[in-house]
């Protein structure tokens, strides 16, 4: 569907490097000619540095919940590469605690990691995108990642719609991908398998009868970043096998 050089000359900044879905995005956008800038959290450093990427790829550690750290990293990337054409906020927190039992500090960290981080990166790429009067921002929401993920996803979707309306005159498109349960998204940040009672239910309830794969969802991101999505902005596109939204 897409030519192998569709993103040639474009810079794609991808957050969450070292995590399964972000790594699938890295491979796919690299295969389509994009220059890559990869951002990762400290906890994912080893995997992020090991992920295969084209020569010239920039890799930077950044705490997405720290607005000043995000500003420093994004501006350094824009200065070094001269532009940012695509932002994909794909970092995954995976907090699974119930809302009635979660500690307040854990709640704050989870919201910072999923909602505030998305806001910080969205806001910082606007300036380099406005210089070119074009840009694609894609926010990923893991809608079935537990109660906190459900709350944060609604916030990210609202943020996306609001920014899409504000930035349309500047030629900047802002969209979401609503991701369901993925086959590869099965471990927490300590490498311990997360036991989700919902997984078997999701598998049987999904109209497709299976979980999604990271490479399948990556194709949705490619579409939203491509010229094929000229009339798509402010939208949450489901990539969940029919479960969400």
Fold topology:
Layout: E1 11-15, H1 20-31, E2 35-40, H2 45-50, E3 58-61, H3 67-81, E4 86-89, H4 104-132, E5 135-142, H5 147-167, E6 172-179, H6 198-205, H7 214-225, E7 236-239
Parallel strand pairs: 1-2, 1-4, 2-3, 4-5, 5-6, 6-7
Descriptive account of the structure:
The protein has seven helices and seven strands, in the order βαβαβαβαβαβααβ. With 245 residues, the chain is an alpha/beta fold. It has a seven-stranded parallel sheet with strand order 3-2-1-4-5-6-7, with helices on both faces. The two termini are 26 Å apart.
Order of helices and strands: EHEHEHEHEHEHHE
Supply the number of helical segments: 7
SS-based structural class?
A: alpha/beta
Hey, roughly how much beta strand do the residues contain? 15-25%
Distance between the termini: 26 Å
Low-pLDDT ranges: 187-197
The global form is globular
Biggest sheet, in brief?
7 strands, parallel
Rg is 17 Å
Mean of residue pLDDT values: 88
Identify the notable features of this structure and list them briefly.
alpha/beta; single chain; seven-stranded parallel beta sheet; 7 helices; 16% strand; 245 residues
Brief digest:
The chain is of the alpha/beta class and 245 residues long. Helices cover 42% and strands 16% of the residues. Helix 5 (147-167) links the parallel strand 5 (135-142) and strand 6 (172-179).
């Amino acid at each position: 569907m897409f030519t192998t050089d569709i993103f040639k000359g474009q810079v794609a900044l991808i957050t969450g490097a070292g995590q399964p879905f972000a790594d699938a995005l890295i491979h796919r956008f690299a295969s389509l000619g994009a220059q890559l800038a990869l951002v990762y959290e400290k906890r994912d450093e080893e995997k992020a540095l090991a992920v295969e990427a084209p020569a010239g790829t920039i890799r930077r550690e950044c705490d997405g919940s720290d607005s000043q750290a995000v500003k420093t990293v994004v501006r350094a990337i824009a200065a070094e590469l001269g532009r940012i054409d695509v932002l994909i906020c794909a970092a995954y927190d995976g907090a699974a605690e119930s809302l009635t039992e979660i500690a307040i500090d854990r709640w704050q960290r989870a919201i910072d990691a999923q909602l505030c981080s998305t806001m910080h990166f969205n806001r910082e790429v606007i300036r380099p995108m406005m210089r070119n009067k074009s840009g694609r921002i894609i926010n990923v929401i893991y809608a079935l990642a537990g109660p906190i993920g459900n709350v944060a996803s609604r916030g990210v979707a609202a943020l996306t719609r609001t920014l899409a309306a504000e930035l349309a005159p500047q030629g900047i498109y802002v969209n979401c991908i609503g991701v369901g349960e993925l086959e590869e998204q099965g471990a927490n940040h300590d490498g311990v398998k997360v036991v989700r009672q919902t997984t078997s239910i999701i598998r049987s309830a999904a109209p497709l009868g299976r979980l999604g794969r990271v490479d399948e969802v990556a194709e949705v991101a490619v579409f939203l970043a491509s010229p094929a999505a000229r009339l798509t902005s402010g939208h949450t596109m489901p990539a969940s096998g029919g479960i969400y939204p």
